[in-house]
# Entry
Amino acid sequence: MDRKMIPIQTLRRLPVYLHYLKSIRQNCPNISATAVADAFGLNDVQVRKDLGAASGSGRPKTGYNTEELIEQLEECLGCRSVTKTVLVGAGNLGKALLSYDGFSDYGLDVIAAFDTDSTLTGTLISGKPVLPMEDLEVVCTEKKIHLGIITVPVAAAQSVCDQLISFGIRAIWNFAPTILKVPKGVLVENENLASSLAVLSQHLQAGRAPEAIEQ
Amino acid sequence: MDRKMIPIQTLRRLPVYLHYLKSIRQNCPNISATAVADAFGLNDVQVRKDLGAASGSGRPKTGYNTEELIEQLEECLGCRSVTKTVLVGAGNLGKALLSYDGFSDYGLDVIAAFDTDSTLTGTLISGKPVLPMEDLEVVCTEKKIHLGIITVPVAAAQSVCDQLISFGIRAIWNFAPTILKVPKGVLVENENLASSLAVLSQHLQAGRAPEAIEQ
# Structure
């Protein structure tokens, strides 16, 4: 409980800054908020506020010590602790996520995948075991899992969500393109690829930027 | 140019309604905005407005004809036309997207992937050819591609983005966790998995829902 609560919109930008800082750490022992803002073409008041939320103020003239700032951002983003998670639904998207190696940078450890398909269960995908749904409860409770990833088809998503919550899950990363009903205190983060596609498609059809009608 | 411009936030919700309507089309010839709202636990004023933007008003008492509404949503979302696209970066995430079969529902056709890795070029991933970067220009211009998907590492993302734009791309779906600089008129839709993870991680660490401090 020693992490500060950081506003959601700030939190979403921090991984971008962190990536950048890691790329320049060799050459820049110090960095100012203005330099970070310039690198991304962002407003420097915004960047100063974002970095301040994670780290406190930079020093006048020298700015932030780059290594210290990286450390503080990693702390804020939970990169320095390991969050164990389970993934339900080992279809194409599930397989993709299991094989994606970027999550470990953010402290995410997918310990197992679950599926109803008996041709998949018992196999390994990118070194992770695929287990039958019947094992979900015992794994979640014994390993004290609090984060679940849902990559099942829409028709199964709510039922999987309900099961996960009954087994102690408090945060859900939902890739099924539907709205999940959850009790208060459970957080759902939706990753809806179809929504992004809809926005891109309208832009191309209209031949102009839709920001003009952003609500 | 016969598609209406729909506000972005509405557009993001339409694929969810569409999925639901398809699931109930056999049993429900008519459906009201209220029934859709109830199915997702959403506010019915919101849903009425969203459906109205895509389709016009439902009829009093009977609501919408389900098949007509599906057709109109598909029209709005560009599902009924094919958008050809190229993907740059055939690493884990790129492979995952190439093998994901949900995109064709939304009219997306990835015609080829591009990579600098000569052990990948010349191969097929899920039936799609992986081509060397040198071929990017000729494919984009000859096939009149306007949408590009970026799944390269951060360090290469801006350079790939610049190339795509110079070859005629007007909309970019960016999976690299960085902010791309683009000229006016080009739309970037960012899919930053690390940002979602940061939000979920904070929720778990804090033991309470971060909505309380949503800005």
About this structure: The beta strands of chain A are 30-31, 64-65, 83-88, 108-115, 124-125, 128-132, 147-150, 171-174, 187-190. Chain A touches chain B through 79 residues (CB under 8 Å). Residues 208-215 of chain A have pLDDT under 50 and may be disordered.
